[in-house]
Specification:
acetate-CoA ligase activity, 7-stranded mixed sheet, GMP Synthetase, Chain A, domain 3, AMP-bd_C_sf, about 650 residues, binds 5'-O-[(S)-butoxy(hydroxy)phosphoryl]adenosine, alpha/beta, about 20% strand, nucleotide-binding
């Protein structure tokens, strides 16, 4: 993040919560916040026991709260049983909210479709019955590769109703990424759509599934169920492929939820790490559900008449916790959007907020930054042209929000009346960890402020010792929490190594650098590992490097991040070809080829923004690539550090030239 370090040094504006936000809020003052923190500190077990009993519907109550006997493989509420879908749907249908709208779906072309909790439950049950008839049951794994739709939520909920563990693959990921996940997770079911529609364009999905199958390794998959979104053409394998509407046809709208153990894997979601292979982050049922619900109540101060809108895709953790699970468990009415913020124009978000009277809006800094630019270029699409008076809370997620974007969000979108909750968390944490509470926490632009009650966040040095206030260090969580990652699917060793390095005394290592100010506020400085954050999406530099070197023309590649005004960070690739270093038109042609290749290997989000060709890469005499140097070169800055240990200093000159 470009300005994080400067921000913590110069940012001194403080915005206390407006009185209207505190009145009647779930946590309405700093005193109320501190009281909860103290409760968790003094009686950790009792605090979580109370939350789990008050917030979840159990089919079999738990007796033990936390089992640490096999740390770091923690177990929460281990002997309890419940069903997540029953907690998201049946609870409201039976509790008098059957006819409340659960989802307001807006398609790319603006068509709106509303579904009540009763209808949603009916559709989830029909599909669950259809899946049951096909032989799917608790313990099976399903890959979901779908566009933003009511159907995607229905499929996720139908899986968990049966105890089928799902793994959602973002629709923007390539066939290759899809295939790797199908294989790694051992899926027996794939649910997809014929095509997705975004920004007025159709993008094929089912054809990518065909490509994935052609790559091999997918033989365990018995069925591919296809949601017909557009009617676009696709190959069809008789006996394997089924239309979603055929699977649900004639099925009953009742299906008993299958109770599962609290620790039953609810889902597996892949995320980038510092090696080439993405990690399958495994989440448990009860603890995850509890935290996604509780954070919706606390961070978004959920109220019965809210219209809540999280703009994430269900392919990311944000779309799991804050679309598919938390808001439903809280019984909210939420907007689900198929399209993109800039279609038909850059006023789309504001127009939707005005039309649906959205009260709670949760988006990413990268979207905010691009809309700042867009509305400057086309003032007709600026927020002030729309009636945004329904808004009450604004949220930010995915990367540090720079103070300029924060102030614009605050003034132009929030009319200086809506608290901004800058929520720090990760795929692995399951839900918010460090965030302001809209009715309690005074905010500072660029800081995610303070940890939620029960979350033991701290900043330590490489020995695990607390660092002094004002000094930077590793962000850790000292105690387990219910929604924490349980394992890396199929790789417990990597789980231990990545998150619980022995020198850090058993603390959970987040992988971010951070600093606290005099008020104890956290300021996130960015990743400490080889992970980039591009538009709020995590990308491993090694992942992009392996994609590049798998191209027949490439001998060697190194990838680093560079601060970017819009996307936060941008991918810069330094490439050595097997043949001669290309120049001019040839260089441009090869660069395009490599970009397309990376899009095909991983997905378009991983495409390098900038490619530089060299005859070699800067290496130490022992042959190590000097990434620190490459980061300087990527920014276009002059290399001031000592390069005398470099084997080949003249290479830097070549690598400073973008194609
Ligand atoms: C990484 C996690 C959290 C869901 C979406 C991304 C960065 C996330 C913030 C924030 C500063 C943030 C961190 C983190 N990050 N939110 N509010 N302020 N940085 O989940 O893909 O697992 O990425 O995103 O670097 O480690 P993810």
């Amino acid at each position: 993040m470009p300005n994080a370090i400067e921000s913590v040094l110069v940012e001194n504006r403080v915005f206390p919560p407006p009185p209207a936000a505190s009145a009647g809020a779930a946590i309405g003052s700093m005193d109320a916040y501190k009281k909860l923190c103290l409760e968790a500190e003094q009686d950790f077990d009792g605090f979580w026991r109370r939350q789990a009993n008050e917030n979840l519907v159990w089919s079999k109550p738990f007796s033990q709260v936390l089992d640490e006997s096999n740390a770091p493989f923690y177990r929460w509420f281990g002997d309890g049983e419940l069903n997540v879908s029953a907690n998201c749907l049946d609870k409201h249908v039976q509790g008098g909210n059957a006819d409340k709208v659960a989802i307001i779906f807006e398609a790319d072309d603006g068509k709106v479709d509303k579904i009540t909790y009763r209808e949603l439950l009916g559709r989830v049950c029909q599909l669950a019955n259809g899946l049951k008839k096909l032989g799917y049951k608790k313990g099976d794994r399903a890959i979901i590769y779908m566009p933003m739709s009511i159907e995607a939520v229905v499929v996720m909920q139908a899986c968990v109703r049966l105890g089928v563990t799902h793994s959602v693959v973002f629709g923007g990921f390539s066939a290759k990424s899809l295939q790797e996940r199908i294989v790694d997770v051992g899926a027996t079911l794939v649910v997809t759509a014929d095509e997705q529609v975004r920004g007025g364009k159709t993008i094929p999905l089912k054809p990518a599934v065909e490509e994935a199958f052609a790559m091999g390794g997918c033989d365990a998959v018995r069925q591919v169920i296809v949601y017909r979104r557009t009617g676009g053409k696709t190959a069809w394998v008789e006996g394997r492929d089924l239309w979603l509407h055929d699977v649900v046809a004639g099925q009953s709208e009742q299906c008993d939820p299958v109770p599962v153990e609290a620790e039953h894997p609810l889902f597996i979601l892949y995320t980038s790490g510092s090696t080439g292979k993405p990690k399958g982050v495994q989440h448990a049922s009860a603890g995850y559900l509890l935290w996604s619900l509780l954070t919706v109540k606390w961070t978004f101060d959920a109220r019965p008449d809210d219209v809540y809108w999280c703009t994430a895709d269900v392919g990311w953790i944000t779309g799991h916790s804050y679309i598919a699970y938390g808001p439903l468990a809280a019984g909210l009415t939420q907007v689900v959007f198929e399209g993109v913020p800039t279609y038909p124009n850059a006023g789309r978000f504001w127009d939707m907020i005005a039309r649906h009277k959205v009260t709670t809006f949760y988006t990413a800094p990268t979207a905010i930054r691009s809309l700042i630019k867009a509305s400057a270029a086309a003032p007709d699409t600026a927020p002030d042209r729309y009636d945004l008076s329904s808004l009450r809370i604004l949220g930010s997620v995915g990367e540090p929000i720079n103070p300029e974007a924060w102030m614009w969000y605050h003034k132009t979108v929030g009319g200086e009346r809506c608290p901004i909750v800058d929520t720090w968390w990760q795929t692995e944490t399951g839900g918010h960890m460090i965030t302001p509470l809209p009715g309690a926490t005074p905010t500072k632009p660029g800081s995610c402020t303070l940890p939620l009650p029960g979350i033991a966040a701290a900043i330590v040095d490489e020995t695990g010792a607390d660092v002094d206030q004002g000094n930077g260090g590793f962000l850790v969580i000292k105690k387990p929490w219910p929604a924490m990652i349980r394992n890396i699917w199929g790789d417990p060793e990597r789980f231990k190594k990545s998150y619980f390095p022995p020198e850090l005394r058993g603390y959970y290592l987040a992988g971010d650098g951070a600093q606290r100010d005099a008020d104890g506020y956290f300021w996130i400085m960015g990743r400490i590992d080889d992970v980039l954050n591009v538009s709020g999406h995590r990308l491993g530099t090694m992942e992009v490097e392996s994609a590049l070197v798998s191209h027949p023309l490439v001998a060697e590649a190194a990838v680093v991040g560079r601060p970017d005004d819009t996307t936060g960070e941008a991918v810069v690739a330094f490439v050595v070809l097997k043949g001669a270093r290309p120049e001019g038109d040839e260089a441009a042609a090869v660069a395009k080829q490599l970009r397309d290749w990376v899009a095909k290997e991983i997905g378009p989000i991983a495409k390098p923004k900038d490619i530089r060709f060299g005859e070699n890469l800067p290496k130490t005499r022992s042959g190590k690539i000097m990434r620190r140097l490459l980061r300087v070169v990527a920014k276009g800055e002059e290399v001031t550090q000592d390069v005398s240990t470099l084997e080949n200093p003249q290479i830097l000159d070549q690598l400073s030239k973008s194609v």
